[in-house]
Amino acid sequence: MSDLVIRPLEAGETHLFNSLSDPGLVGRPLLGHAFALTDEGGEYRPEWSWVALREGTVVARAAWWGAPGDAEPMALDWLDFTDADAAVQLLRTAPLKAEYDLLLPPGWRDRPDVREVAQARIDTAIVAGMEPLVERFRYDWTPECGLPERPGRLEFRPEPDDAVILDVLKRIGHGSLDAHTRHTTELKGADAAAREDLDILLWFPSPRAWWRLAYTPDGRLAGIQVPSRNSAGRYVVGFIGVLPEQRGHGYAYDLLVECTHDLVGYGAERIAAATDQGNAPMAAHFAKAGYPVTQERINLV
């Protein structure tokens, strides 16, 4: 077998990355995304986009994504191959580390063709040193889904002080069902997990003034909801969280509905959201609010 050449792309090599034949059953193609380098009008940097070639033919490819100005990538978006061993070597060789966000169609395990290519990617990532963290549902709300009626049980107020928000996020982290929060808490502690959540919310380019704390009629803090827009300009449910002492009342549904109304008021005609599949209460709230599951995801770290 000929030697394997593993290297990052150079400017103008979008065509090389796209020369690998892939059916597009999983990953970014499910969102209608095509790969292109930044110098050719795309969103992927050449130095974060790698290929493995054998006799000049691409047999594996991977691309990491980060927002403009980011020093390190935020996610591994693309991982495709015709040679699994080459893909493992590519992941081990590239000096880039970020969570692998594998996009899948709903009910993907019931489709043998999709299950095969998905499992191949999962297995390859694991052999390369990653481990599965969580499976998630992704939702897309549109006006055709219907705007849920506000329950009217909570009062929503702005809170401009990031220190207050940080404390709220830390309190919400206790007993959280969110796998990312639990993972960061286990590795770095509750303070770091709350700081990570806050940094992500501040990273969104949407106005800070959109954030709202929620209070019960007797003035007790219940939680927080953050309507947001991501770096691509899409409207998203940025964060929904209920304080431990206020759980059990279904307030997460109230927060989600208020967030949806806020985003529609800001001009949203499509709202993206996600939650862990293991977070059954939140998944039930999304279903009740009319959010259909449009993708599933597996996150590996």
Cα separation of the termini: 31 Å
Percent in helix: 25-40%
Query: Spatial order of the strands in the main sheet?
Result: 1-2-3-4-5-12-6-11-10-9-8-7
Beta-strand proportion: 25-35%
Radius of gyration: 21 Å
Q: Provide the low-confidence segments as ranges.
A: none
Write down the secondary-structure element order: EHEEEHEHEEHHHEEEHEHE
Task: Set down the secondary structure blueprint.
Layout: E1 4-8, H1 14-17, E2 49-54, E3 57-65, E4 75-81, H2 84-93, E5 99-104, H3 112-127, E6 132-141, E7 155-157, H4 162-173, H5 179-188, H6 190-203, E8 212-215, E9 221-229, E10 235-242, H7 251-265, E11 271-276, H8 280-288, E12 293-300
Parallel strand pairs: 4-5, 10-11
Antiparallel strand pairs: 1-2, 2-3, 3-4, 5-12, 6-11, 6-12, 7-8, 8-9, 9-10
Helix pairs in contact: 2-3, 4-6, 5-6
Would you give an account of this structure?
- The chain is α+β, with helices and mostly antiparallel strands.
- Helix content is 30%, strand content 27%.
- It has 8 helices and 12 strands.
- It has helices at residues 14-17, 84-93, 112-127, 162-173, 179-188, 190-203, 251-265, 280-288; strands at 4-8, 49-54, 57-65, 75-81, 99-104, 132-141, 155-157, 212-215, 221-229, 235-242, 271-276, 293-300.
- A 12-stranded mixed sheet has the order 1-2-3-4-5-12-6-11-10-9-8-7, with helices on both faces.
- A hairpin with a 5-residue loop joins strand 9 and strand 10 (235-242).
- The mean pLDDT is 97.
